[in-house]
């Protein structure tokens, strides 16, 4: 497949987890670097606690806004079951960075056994796909940074450590600072740094 | 959301925006002076941007009660000589159809643009309608952009073309253009807003004699436009000249073709149509003449395929036709680069990767992946209303006609959902044939004003016996909390004015009163109107936080909770989950997330053991 003029990623999770914020920060950093940006977002009905997937491409020569199954280089997952749902979007050589967070959908609130089983099997299930998988305790690290909501930013930090990711830590950090409210910059940057550290440990 | 500053600043710059915001900027650069719209996904952000920009720039923009009204408002402005625009979703265009089928005959003066957002794949819609058919049957010239940048440029061009030929224009986008985010080049603009003037002439009266004379004039305009397209730059031919294959495409499908050809490493001529009606016959014939195979790539309907195939036959050009007719692409759901590449590979004798390993992994893991549908938000007053209703409806074995809005998410009682305002008409119809069960209609405040009003007048006049429940959450919440007439026009006054005899109002958080009110309404001959009034919980939460006030949240006493599941499993409030640890009896209990609880109190009312109470501050 010859699509090397662009870097393709999907960001997945549950509506309300800050998915659009991550894609925004990456887009801001890419634009600043002089790269083109093209993504596809979910608005409307699907946002209300439903499963959400956002597509984002950065590069020089971009055409379609969506990423087909098997074509994404990176996946950022804010909830581990949503990561599993969208693993199919990754290239066999791609990388998934997923939070260990679990958010219970209504059917699991009715049937806790299914939730327990899925959680026990998550490692095994994720590894059925060829792509590389990095699991991060984003909930813990965000709390450590002092901002429970910043789980998405922890994962953004981790993303910056992916080998062929086209944006640098510095570029992402600067974009992060322009995107989050000024009183939360410090805690967000801290969450970002903790994500970077977690990746370094993982490697 | 794009910032207001970026949206309106008169500068050359690149800005990260949604396709819809690019359309709004295009309208601003074109000097739109009157804008009117009813919200609808995937078009709403166009309207939100323009309605926010209007007071800053000094033009007029409004949320109209429905698409038909919005088009009338904008059309009047256009025939008075000023540039005007509406935006709606595909099914909204149907509501406006009564206006434009006649307005097309009469033409316009100031540039008049209708933006329609189609929704292939039904991301937030009830069908996959391809609005190009509606446009062409009314003789609209139709522009189809293929990227956010083009969406902006085409919007500007639409005003110019409309003015040049005195004809209303249709700009058709789809969800993947409207909700694409991209860096888009904004340009400087020069606009002068001015008062309109209506030239007194019979032209704008669609009386039979005048319409009869206007129809051939409209067709003539389309002929003139057809001749003009090649010089407009809206048609583009790419790729090598000499090839047995040629692809004809437009809109978002063009972007899929470009990526698909890259996947296939193929260099095939592409004819990209920027205007899909009238057809650029000259360019199409020239392109197709030398080809043995013409491939049509488009989403959902074979619009280009059917029309251009006919055109080629009429001109005795007979390439082999590929497209929907032989399954290159399917006739439903959206496309993507891979689906297009897969459709093309056998034609070109090439092979792209398949994903057998991925498919196998999906098969092995999918049973563990939970279904996660969108739900009512925490504290949603609709959940409370439906929970109360479900008890009464089920007890009485009632028939329940619902409508379009957040409340379409009801998991308990709705029997039918058809289109905007249909609840009332459907309930009227059920009441004619189902005599032994109570009939209910439920409608939101915005939908009530959209198309519920004429249906309610009909029900009163024809004495239909049903109970109308109005969920008045003070705004059009589903599409992004837009304001609507319920702010200023009390629905009970409307019902009274229409002659409804039994009207009652209650707060859907008040469970006991709610049940009694509905039971009481059932004793009266309909139509009765029961209004459930409570501000959208989402908006309440936001406003309270913005004011710096505290939200009084609730919590569970672990020792009193018996883990019966009433609040979690039956009431389904997303703020409530099971505990990780257990209480002293070794049992799990419920936990309320204080960051999402809106303090509605409903869980504390329905808890059978009184385990839930307000957190004392």
Strand order in the largest sheet of chain B: 3-2-4-5-7-6-12
CATH class of the largest domain in chain B: Alpha Beta
Distance between the termini of chain B: 36 Å
- From the alpha carbons, calculate the radius of gyration of chain B and give it in angstroms: 28 Å
How much of the residues of chain B is beta strand, in percent? 15-25%
Number of helices of chain B: 22
CATH-defined superfamily of chain A: Pyruvate-ferredoxin oxidoreductase, PFOR, domain III
Q: Label the CATH architecture of the largest domain in chain B.
A: 3-Layer(aba) Sandwich
Mean pLDDT of chain B: 96
Q: What is the highest CATH level, the class of chain A? A: Alpha Beta
* CATH fold call of chain A: Pyruvate-ferredoxin Oxidoreductase, domain 3
Q: Segments of chain B where pLDDT lies below 50 for 5+ residues?
A: none
Biggest β-sheet description of chain A? 6 strands, mixed
Element string of chain A (H = helix, E = strand): EHEEEHEHHHEHHHH
Class per helix and strand makeup of chain A: alpha/beta
How would you characterize the largest beta sheet of chain B? 7 strands, mixed
Describe the protein's architecture and organization.
Chain A contains nine helices and six strands. Chain A has helices spanning 19-32, 80-86, 106-110, 112-120, 122-126, 138-145, 151-159, 169-179, 185-202, and strands at 6-14, 36-40, 51-59, 72-77, 90-99, 132-136. In chain A, strands 2-3-1-4-5-6 form a six-stranded mixed sheet, sandwiched between helices. The radius of gyration of chain A is 16 Å and the shape is globular. The relative contact order of chain A is 0.16. Chain B folds into four domains: 4-231, Rossmann fold, CATH 3.40.50.970; 235-348, Rossmann fold (3-Layer(aba) Sandwich); 381-540, Thiamin diphosphate (ThDP)-binding fold, Pyr/PP domains (Rossmann fold, 3-Layer(aba) Sandwich); 550-614, 2-Layer Sandwich (Alpha-Beta Plaits). Chain B is built from 22 helices and 23 strands. A seven-stranded mixed sheet of chain B has the order 3-2-4-5-7-6-12, with helices on both faces. In chain B, helix 10 (251-264) packs across helix 13 (337-348). Classes of the chains: A alpha/beta (203), B alpha/beta (617). Chains A and B meet through helix 1, strand 2, helix 2, helix 3 and helix 4 of A and strand 1, strand 8, helix 10, helix 13 and helix 14 of B.
